[in-house]
Amino acid sequence: MNSSSLNVLVSPPLISTSTPTLKAFHRPNFSSKPSKRISCMHDPSINLNFGSKSNPKHDFPVSFATAFVEAPLGTTTTTTTSSDKLHLLVSEFRSLAEPIDRVKRLLSYATALAPLDDSARVPANRVTGCTTQVWLEIKVDELGRMRFKADSDSEISKGFCSCLIWILDGAKPEEVMGVRGEDLSEMNVGVHGKVQSRVNTWHNVLMSMQKRTKALVGDADVVHREGDRSAPHQHNLLFDYVNGRSYVESASKVHRDYSISVLPLGYDFTI
Amino acid sequence: MEGVAMKLPSFKSLAPTAISVASTFSIRRSLSFARRSSSLSAATITADSEPVSLGHRARKDFRILHQEVNGSKLVYLDSAATSQKPAAVLEALQNYYEFYNSNVHRGIHYLSAKATDEFELARKKVARFINASDSREIVFTRNATEAINLVAYSWGLSNLKPGDEVILTVAEHHSCIVPWQIVSQKTGAVLKFVTLNEDEVPDIDMLREMISEKTKLVAVHHVSNVLASSLPIEEIVVWAHEVGAKVLVDACQSVPHMVVDVQKLNADFLVASSHKMCGPTGIGFLYGKSDLLLAMPPFLGGGEMISDVFLDHSTYAEPPSRFEAGTPAIGEAIALGAACDYLSDIGMPKIHEYEVELAKYLYETLASVPDVRIYGPRPSESVQRAALCSFNVEGLHPTDLATFLDQQHGVAIRSGHHCAQPLHRYLGVNASARASLYFYNTKEDVDSFIVALADTVSFFNSFK
């Protein structure tokens, strides 16, 4: 399989391979274009040998560097809303029937994630509640758009972050707040069933994006639809197990915060 | 391969497999290896010379193990998180609800009397299982976590003073850390933590040195759910008692897998969960020495635990009732009793012997996979590991690993901190993967796991 055909296959739906920036994005006509793109992307000759254990080696050239780029400053993306991008991403993942293909797609997005400076890997940037470590850096640019960068120690989580950033980087604060957790559960990547804890990474990263967007931009400007959560949990050790320091001394550092939920995402708790 | 017909298994004591229709209502103190007839056919001597392992034989009793997940056969390697339940236990639970469900202890009528008898019989079975001398030393709780909280709030709040010390290890489960944090905050007691030595087991010498006149309690695990190591509880109890300290043993990973004799250990408190030992969820127990329980104030208040209730005060019942407020998990307790019977029928020494072998096999095959780092001690002449391995693969997040193993191979392992965040922090990792076995696992399960693991590693490597 030559790499050029692969580029067509695996690049995200609305970025053509010749122009890597979002400037080239055109607003899709949902009735006809997505299906056309989906058939392009779904290559039946993709190696589906995963079921057979005899051939574990997967030569899968990874060259998606052109796929994801931060929207360069000054680029207008007014024709593209985050909502559109979300729908397109959902369609893309839905088109992949085999779970393994969804995992592969997610992992390929992970490799395309823009790197995060070491200086950004601080506790304040940690997204809490994830089973993996996720760091999220967020700022507002001079046009008032939200800019995100993220990283994780898990490749699958990196894939999630990569998707979220593709959807939300460069978006207006209202768009960020408008994405709902339920929309993400449609991605259904890597896990099965509707109620999954693995997807909490999506949810937690999105929550973090929204919470911090709100904090940066101020309540007045922003419509918050997801419901409120308190400040990020301070992950303090409640004791020092090196001899000498007693527990009682550290007690004052306890930060009372109950913002993490381990309840399943997307589950309908109403009676 | 599970054969239905089998040769006489090579037990140490060659008792022929007797067919007994085990009655759930009678006490069976079986020293021979009698089996339930419902699950196994008569021992038929075949031409097949291969003795069938305990794992193969036991699997028949666990219908849940015979299914496919995501298109592959289920390989369940998460028994340290919760065990599967044999048909006999499920039958006992069903039987209770179908034939004699009734509230216990105060009823006069037939069903109530029967339920009470069975409930108290279950208490006896648990007591016998851990060799407690009196079944009143068994307090039924919701699980081991609640049992530890019971000791923390009831014994701890009334016995710990500012400056008193509670010794724990960094390898404790959260349930044996957090309650002590809460109580020490309230009482002013101080928590001290034993760290690991170079073999990645809690440093016993350090523990011994830490014990001082100020020590009031030593709360430690018997078998670690991450490191697979065991602590010398008998010795620890001796050292603690020398200074007048009490010892609480978290036996969640030991009671299901080996003979635990509380009289021999001489522990003051011991906790375990039913759901890790083939029993249902929703029930666990605290073993406490009679004199200790007698002196402890109640934990939860309500019905059952009182003697007389007035408007302005109440008097309390004797232990264990004092600590069992409200209607207990009656059916679950009875099913736990059935689990104790089931395990005793096989014989805990037999189970332990099988698991030691399986543990070695798991460790050796896992260690042979490149870039795998297993936590805990290396097995040797003097060190026996439990049948579990927490590990990490270089460059692969354990959660990604577990996801892929489940998705593509039907292998169920756990990933995360296994309720031992301080331990992981100490080891310098955020999370680990853990494969844990029980007597219904086989060598083939381990083989499937290793093959799946190798496939997973190469899949993720192909993205690098």
Can you walk me through this structure?
- Chain A has 271 residues and is mainly alpha-helical.
- Chain A has a domain at 101-189 and 201-217: Sufe protein. Chain: A (Alpha-Beta Complex), CATH 3.90.1010.10.
- In chain A, 34% of the residues lie in helices and 5% in strands.
- Chain A is built from nine helices and two strands; from the N terminus they run ααααββααααα.
- Chain A has helices at 3-10, 33-41, 82-95, 99-111, 155-168, 173-178, 181-185, 200-217, 247-250; strands at 134-140, 146-152.
- A seven-stranded mixed sheet of chain B has the order 6-12-11-10-9-7-8, with helices on both faces. Chain B has a four-stranded antiparallel sheet with strand order 15-16-19-18, with helices on one face. In chain B, strands 1-2 form a two-stranded parallel sheet.
- Chain B is built from 14 helices and 19 strands.
- The longest helix of chain B has 20 residues, at 110-129.
- Chain B is globular, with a radius of gyration of 23 Å.
- With 464 residues, chain B is an alpha/beta fold.
- The chains are: A mainly alpha (271), B alpha/beta (464).
- Chain A: This is (rape) hypothetical protein.
- Chain A: Its main location: plastid.
- Chain A: Belongs to the SufE family.
